[in-house]
Amino acid sequence: MSDYDKLTAHYQTINRFAHAQSMLGWDAAANMPSGGNDARGDAMAELSVHIHRLSTQPQLADWFSGVEQAALTTEQKASLREMKRSWQHATLVPEDLVQAQSVAGSKCEHAWRTQRQENDWVGFEKNWKEVVTLSREEAKIRSEALGLTPYDAMLDKFEPGTSSESLNTLFSDVKTWLPELIEKALDKQKSSNIIMPSGTYPAETQKALGLEVMKLLKFDFDHGRLDQSVHPFCGGVPTDVRITTRYDEQDFVQALMGIVHETGHARYEQGLPKAYAGLPVGEARSMGIHESQSLFFEMQVGRSKPFVSHLSRLSKDAFNAHQDPVFAEENLSQLYTRVEKGFIRVDADELTYPAHVILRYEIERDLINGVIEHTDVPELWDEKMKAALGISTKGNYKNGCMQDIHWTDGAFGYFPSYTLGAMYAAQYKAKMTQTVDIDAAIQSGDLSPIFQWLSDNIWSQASLHTTDELVTRATGEVLNAAHFRKHLEQRYL
Amino acid sequence: MSDYDKLTAHYQTINRFAHAQSMLGWDAAANMPSGGNDARGDAMAELSVHIHRLSTQPQLADWFSGVEQAALTTEQKASLREMKRSWQHATLVPEDLVQAQSVAGSKCEHAWRTQRQENDWVGFEKNWKEVVTLSREEAKIRSEALGLTPYDAMLDKFEPGTSSESLNTLFSDVKTWLPELIEKALDKQKSSNIIMPSGTYPAETQKALGLEVMKLLKFDFDHGRLDQSVHPFCGGVPTDVRITTRYDEQDFVQALMGIVHETGHARYEQGLPKAYAGLPVGEARSMGIHESQSLFFEMQVGRSKPFVSHLSRLSKDAFNAHQDPVFAEENLSQLYTRVEKGFIRVDADELTYPAHVILRYEIERDLINGVIEHTDVPELWDEKMKAALGISTKGNYKNGCMQDIHWTDGAFGYFPSYTLGAMYAAQYKAKMTQTVDIDAAIQSGDLSPIFQWLSDNIWSQASLHTTDELVTRATGEVLNAAHFRKHLEQRYL
């Protein structure tokens, strides 16, 4: 067996344990009763340790150095590159640091759940200090090994190939036009008459409606299912994708669009190439590209007028409420494009969302690079929120810098993915329009031409190319915020 | 760390992988869409290989021989005994034989699914021959290592400590009185007027009813749940027990009692001692003892008149059918104690069930011991069915010797567990009656005194004692078929 084949077999083995881990994680969120938690935690930790052990096995170094590059096809070279990337990420950080981070992160996150509710910055800061210190250590180690700035080395975990240089350019651009666009959209919205949902919408009916919408989006039910969990997510494995949502019986709006969003993630997973199943090269390219699929489904398709027309028809049928003005096309469309300045990122609309992300990006970048200290964060947050959305979070930590889970356990470098995804999605749309009549496809109820484009250009390409290559092959250029601006202007002006 | 502590840590590690395997198995039966099957199969096979590797790791031999027995408490000695038993079972059979059995068993079982429907004994016999040959090889190896007859060595996998000598005695006794008892019960039944279910019983309502019955049986919903699968079973782990059932919307009778049965299995698992969680000594004693709990719940409690009175009340409420004579106490009681001679074991009632088991036991015992050949089975089956129940299976393989899945993949030695379980359950009841007013407890709706007895005597004892010790400590004697006979006579005469 060649060294390349040994590596391939080894990563497929790792993937089978990751399958178990993924399913146990989904089950813990969707099914598990509370009393199952401790034993499940132990089992999942054991799987993590085992996967880490396999991922850092000493023979890997020999196999990687033994591979004869010349004998490999282009695809095999890409596969090798991704296995190597995976190996480097697993081996870069010393185990005692990983362990210390895990302990500090769990402690901080656990306490945060109470501290946030109590607006207790002082208590939070004590735990968080350690998390930040350890993340900076991690960033330093990664930085030296990868020849990147500390923050860029953290970004690389989620968005390989993306740098703060390019993010600075993209986000500075957004900051020049976003505040004004938000004001104009709010102005325009003033004259609209919106009817809010006020009935009772049984979870069972919402689920049935969600399943209908998933059919319209050609979710493959032979390879996945829809369930419920407190925090909606897309989990499972490509051959069996598990998406979840949460139903509010007083309001169907969010759960329904949440299903559209998760279906975007799911179709990417379901559409990954079978030929590379179980290998790093067969996985989604990055968090930003993953988000580009969920946001293409949600923002480019889901909230478009022709799709809202389907939602109107299907929800009238589901709730047997053909005369209810809430479900009228125009009203649903307004509900799904409503703009509001708010404190909370996860509740934010499409237009204000980038402001929340850019603020976090600027703070975490400077924090990890040592330009600011963790105690500077509340004040910076307040300043930046005032600048971006005109609202102050002074003394309001719970709705300010303590609102997200990400930083509590050291996931620095993740936030940009959300807005990168939204930008990629707008760029695909602009390119797709050249060959596909998108609105007509949506209107017809057969969205296949749209999905075919995504499959050809994104899903089937998995991690065969770098992100920049992938996007350039798909759209003819690297990421360009102009498409995002144009999309938002068209929708909100 | 002492060798004993090393062993303990090692078996706890194995158990965490077994947790993953058990949950993936449950999920495959209860949730997984068909397209997920291949990748799931690979993941589960990888876990099996890994568990096998851990179970046969060379250091184990050193650790076992290094343990200083004198330093151990009684409980630790029991724990050591059970770890050793687990190790011996894993190491006894050479890997190439295990592999050959797995291949032959899968092939035979897979083809059997079609062959059974087509009554194709000739086709089945060709595959089954190999399964029998390999099982005999396995039995020979186990026999030599354990100093038991070949069949007893196979029995030992499911019922440690049970021998065909004792089974011969128990079952010969049953054969002296069972046929006459069946005839008398059938005679008595002739005069009864039974009303069969004829309505539509929605699955959702049946599930709600099932959950009510589980509450009555004090199933711990913090540590388990109820779902659906094609073949009902009890899976999961002790801290998170997953029971399943299947609903027939034309008939609620079987699903409802199936839930009672699986709840018995579940409460045993939920009641295993926390102090030995994750260790072989903390697991259920044997298949027969497991079945004794499900059958105690089903036969001793579930089909008793005071419990059927609860079922009557709860099902009238659930189906909103207070006037429907099907749900009347007396009618439900007749439905749940109806006797019928039939071909199929899984459809058999309490009274004829032992006849099905004893016939299988006699055939598999002689087959594994080399007294008969696999080609003799159809004729023997016909003879024994005529003797036991007066019905012939000549030429009727599908409802004769080809009806069960067990033998298709070599699970020889399992069948006796079913009737051993029924006998143990009757013996517990006889003993329990001396200190607990069982009928009064059931009538009151608070069955705690019954469960306390089972917890004290069975659940909390896990595998701390051998089966004979366990039963003697609980009831003052080893297994005695007289209690089973008395129970059946009281119910059916």
From TrEMBL, chains A, B:
Transmembrane segments: none annotated. SUPFAM superfamilies: Metalloproteases ('zincins'), catalytic domain. Signal peptide: none annotated. Zn(2+) binds at H261, H265, E291. Binds 1 zinc ion per subunit. InterPro entries: Peptidase_M32_Taq. It catalyses: Release of a C-terminal amino acid with broad specificity, except for -Pro. It comes from the Bacteria. The keyword Hydrolase applies. It holds the Pfam family Peptidase_M32. The keyword Membrane does not apply. One of its GO terms (biological process) is proteolysis. GO terms for molecular function: metallocarboxypeptidase activity; zinc ion binding. Its cofactor is Zn(2+). Keywords: Carboxypeptidase, Hydrolase, Metal-binding, Metalloprotease, Protease, Zinc. The active site is at E262. Its EC number is 3.4.17.19. Belongs to the peptidase M32 family. Broad specificity carboxypetidase that releases amino acids sequentially from the C-terminus, including neutral, aromatic, polar and basic residues. PANTHER family: CARBOXYPEPTIDASE 1, METAL-DEPENDENT CARBOXYPEPTIDASE. This is Metal-dependent carboxypeptidase. It comes from Marinomonas mediterranea (strain ATCC 700492 / JCM 21426 / NBRC 103028 / MMB-1). The lineage of its organism: Bacteria, Pseudomonadati, Pseudomonadota, Gammaproteobacteria, Oceanospirillales.
